[in-house]
Amino acid sequence: MQAALDYLERNRDRFLKLLLEFLEIPSISAQRAYDEHTARAAAFIRARLDDAGFKTGLYHGDGLPTVYGSRIEGDVRPTLLLYGHYDVQPPDPLDLWDSPPFEPVRRDGILYGRGTCDDKGQLFMHLKAAEAYLKTRGDLPLNVKYIFEGEEESGSVNLPDFIESNTELLKADVVVISDTALFGSGVPSITYGLRGLAYVEVTLTGPDRDLHSGVYGGAIENPVNALAKIIAGLHDEDHRVTIDGFYDSVIPLSDDERATFASLPFDDQEWIEEVGVDTARTEKGYTVLEGTTARPTLDCNGIWGGYTEKGAKTVLPSQASAKISMRLVPDQTPEDITEKIRSHFEKHLPPTMKLTFTDLHGGYGALVDTNSPAMKAAAKAMEGVYGQKPFFVRTGGSIPIVAEFKKLLGLDTVLMGFGLDSDSIHSPNECFGLDRFHQGIQTIIRFMDIYKG
Question: In this predicted model, what pLDDT tens digit does every residue of 325-374 receive, in sequence order?
């Protein structure tokens, strides 16, 4: 292991140069105009795996390619299945970037550019950890298989089919993903809980066309008004969701879990100031940290209808629409919650309106046993790098593929990420600290050595 760690130190500059080359590829999966670039990013990863001596393949299916790589060192060694994604979010709005999103720059030890943290930089850590072993000892401490997909930012629509069709190819002992964040700067942590997601779009239609508000107003119900009223009623005065049965499957937080939350180095006031609000609004009886990571939520992500351009246009709109997301905790299912919000809108729909309801996508939450051998190995590896035991934390985000790995392969996932919530993923000026990039490689090197047994 020490030889691999020494190799990392000697090759810091070269690793960074390769990462910059990777980040310059605009692999935006949500926009078909970038498919050629996304395929180029897949080829870049595959070439790195080929150079390292991995057996590789590209699997296209009905979408963008999934890169597969494997190196089997022996039957008696455990097998890691490492997942990452090489596609990135669109960079808009471009005018809010301090430097071009696909021209990564280094400022004060921080690397700025789209994909630096989510997930190219973190994916790249795994490739370099493997290289450090292969260049110093000629093999890996254990067997390694990689899945790097190109559609995570557009819903991973084809990956479940790929997994289900290749269960023998992907057979392993545990999954490792680095697409999460540390609890704070210099505060090591491993995620053991993720929220799921249900995401819908609703449209209310009144008259069959936009009408003159002076001529028809007073006798025709306005779809914007009606939709706003329904959405306003989705929470009660305690900030609990009012959908019938929404909390039926929610597992209550245990006393031990709440004690763990209370012990974490989290300052409510600092969080409030960082977000830029005067006060927090949580579900009654829960702290900010509990509310943002371990309780289900509902949020309207966008609402529109009628005239929204500059100036005045006095219309009574024909339609109003909204997108609504619900973050789910384990045991809530996207199918059940989607049907419940559909029923809620049908129940509260005015007789003057027609409802169009669209299930956009969803995913399951996950809880991982913190006492498993892989989680213990990850904790020991992090402690070796950071000099303190990591916290086990739950996070408010969703990584739906974690539940798919459990469902289709029977595998738990170690969520060992090195980002920060302040890294502006999905936003302008996304960034990744180079100290965390190198600490991540060090931790992965140590994890491989410890988990091999």
Answer: 999 998 999 999 999 999 999 999 999 999 999 999 888 999 999 999 99
Active-site annotation holder among 87, 131, 290, 423: 87
The structural domain count of the chain equals 2
Tokens standing for residue 386: 């950071």
- Determine whether 87 is an active site residue: yes
pTM value?
0.87
pLDDT digits (tens, 9 = 90+) for 267-287: 999 999 988 999 999 999 999
Position 34 in a domain:
yes
How far apart CA 131 and CA 7 sit, in angstroms, is 9
End position of a domain, from candidates 363, 380, 403: 363
Instruction: Give the span between the Cα atoms of 272 and 277, in whole angstroms.
Output: 6
User: Are residues 226 and 181 part of one domain?
Assistant: no
Residue 187 has what DSSP assignment? B
Which pairs from 132-135 meet CB under 8 Å and 24+ separation? 132/4, 132/5, 132/7, 132/8, 132/11, 132/441, 132/445, 133/4, 133/445, 133/448, 134/52, 134/53, 135/7
Considering the domain architecture, whether residues 222 and 121 belong to the same structural domain is answered as no
Structure tokens at 322: 């909204």
Does any domain span residue 267? Answer: no
Task: Give the tens place of pLDDT for each residue, 188-226.
Answer: 999 999 999 999 999 999 999 999 999 999 999 999 999
355 is in which domain, residue-wise? 197-250+296-363
The one catalytic residue in 118, 119, 152, 283 is: 152
Domain boundary at 363, 380, 401, which? 363
